[in-house]
Amino acid sequence: MDYYIIIPAHNEEAFLSDTLHSVSVQTLLPKKVIIVNDNSNDGTENIIDEFSKNFRFFEKLNISSSKEHLPGSKVINAFRKGLELLDNEYDFIVKLDADVILPSHYFETIATVFKENPKVGLAGGFVYELNSNGTWELNHPMNKKHVRGAFKAYTKACFKSIGGLKNAMGWDTVDELLAQYHGYDIRTMEDLKVKHLRPTGKAYNAKARLMQGEAMYGMDYGFYLTFVASLKMAWKQKSIKTLYHNLMGFFKAGRNKMQKLVTVDEGKFIRKHRWQGIRNKLIG
């Protein structure tokens, strides 16, 4: 199967070489990899140039957006710029972070899943991060069916059905909900162990604190579902401030009449799907 990869990169000098090397040794190589150098002022561009010189499928795109490392909009803006350079001659497309190391069989396994299971529209592995003892340990969300935003792979049909990636915080949740709305399954594979070199959220600044609640508003969760989801996040992060910030973000989005990320029908599906998932966990 043919696939494309788009890698947004902002000041990734410390990690990018490892990421690109892990792509270059895949047992199933990509048709093309667009590395979007977004306003970097370190050695990121030099690393891209070196790999582009040695491997024909790497290609650089320089853009200049905000210097702030906010979740959501900055990354997806870079992804979309990279997407403009690609044609439609692919079987699946990948949004990949610039701070991960993939196992060499990663995309061969993804391709096999897509080829053998036409209903699967979105697939990925599991995140591992270094703990204080220097050991790589699982750091995946409680929902094992969720594919982390660091390595999302979509079939072309699924990607087109969901309208691509939303340029907002919550893009890596709403994509899965919309995929299911359109009848696609999501597949995660525990044997695909991805090393995440930068601990989650370390680069986000203070402005990101309210954005999770804004994302829940954008996905049309409604207040009660937002409260339950935020309470769950607060419990996982062991911080009541998470609940507070999420709710403040939700109310702020409402006051500002922020545009929803989904249609009315999609919102109804999302709320029903989320509540069903909560009920299943309580019963099971």
UniProtKB/TrEMBL annotation:
SUPFAM superfamilies: Nucleotide-diphospho-sugar transferases (SSF53448)
Gene3D superfamilies membership: Spore Coat Polysaccharide Biosynthesis Protein SpsA, Chain A
Organism, as annotated: Maribacter arenosus
Keyword Glycosyltransferase: yes
Name of the protein described by the UniProt record: Glycosyltransferase family 2 protein
Family indicated by similarity: Belongs to the glycosyltransferase 2 family.
Keyword NAD: no
Location of the Glycosyltransferase 2-like domain: 5-155
InterPro entries recorded: Glyco_trans_2-like, Glycosyltransf_2, Nucleotide-diphossugar_trans
Keyword list, A-Z: Glycosyltransferase, Transferase
